[in-house]
Write a structure and sequence with these properties.
InterPro entries: Tscrpt_reg_HTH_GntR, WH-like_DNA-bd_sf, WH_DNA-bd_sf. The protein has a two-stranded antiparallel ribbon. 13% of the residues are buried. The protein is mainly alpha-helical. The chain is built from 5 helices and 2 strands, in the order αααββαα. It starts with 12 loop residues before the first helix and ends in an 8-residue tail after the last helix.
């Protein structure tokens, strides 16, 4: 998986790293139990401070996307559970995106088609 960071973006680098890793997992570019680069390796590859990568990894760990072991490093988690906090976050983000789409004149059917097209690109499908 190639990490692409926008150093000019207002989005903090650690958030960009987090988002790209989540997308990589969702698209199947990163598989369950796949080992991630060490903090030092990813920092060197991305040209950022190790603390930035560490912060991204800690957030991913807290959210359940990765597991970190001192001896084995960071690996993609087998299962990520949707808890109430995640569901509330998802609903809030979807509400904002829906509002923005509506304000700009996008029809509901077009918005849903766009969502469906993006979701279809995700390779990780789990039954709950």
């Amino acid at each position: 998986m190639v990490i692409e960071l926008d150093m000019e973006s207002e989005v903090p680098i650690y958030v960009q790293l987090r988002n790209q890793i989540v997308k990589g997992i969702g698209k199947g570019e990163l598989k369950a139990q796949e080992k991630l680069p060490t903090v030092r390796q990813l920092a060197a590859e991305a040209g950022v401070n190790t603390m930035t990568v560490n912060k991204a990894y800690q957030i991913l760990k807290a959210e359940g996307y990765i597991k970190i072991d001192r001896r084995h490093g960071a690996v993609v988690a087998d299962v990520v559970d949707m808890d109430l906090q995640f569901r509330e976050k998802l609903e809030a983000e979807l509400e904002l995106l829906s509002a923005e789409a509506s304000i700009t004149g996008m029809e509901k059917a077009e918005f849903l088609k766009l969502c469906d097209g993006i979701y279809s690109k995700m390779k990780v499908c789990r039954q709950y």
